[in-house]
Amino acid sequence: MNPDLRKLPLEERLRLVEDLWDSIAADQGALPLTSQQRAELDRRLDAYESDSVRGRPAADVIADIRKTL
Question: What is the pTM of this model?
């Protein structure tokens, strides 16, 4: 780790991480999937499409998580 980074305030380091992550997300199309990754995604999609239970709304899941905190 670059020792100069530790000198930055935590909020600034978090902002830098967020900016870096956003830049990676914007370029994600530049990284092709491996055949193994594509096969795993296909397997998960098939499992999702064949399941009659579609899950729960995110708001419900988040509320349940917050109850346990």
Answer: 0.44
How many whole angstroms separate alpha carbon 40 and alpha carbon 55? Answer: 20
Q: Where are the domains of the chain?
A: 3-68
Tens-level pLDDT at each residue, the chain (69 residues): 788 888 999 999 999 999 999 998 888 778 889 999 999 999 999 988 998 777 889 999 999 999 999
Residues contacting 13, CB < 8 A, separation 6+? 5
Distance CA 18, CA 22 (A): 6
Alpha carbon 65 to its chain's center? 18
Secondary structure (3-state) at 43: helix
Contact between residue 33 and residue 41 where contact means Cβ atoms under 8 Å apart: yes
Q: What are the φ/ψ torsions at residue 57 (nearest 5 degrees)?
A: -60, 145
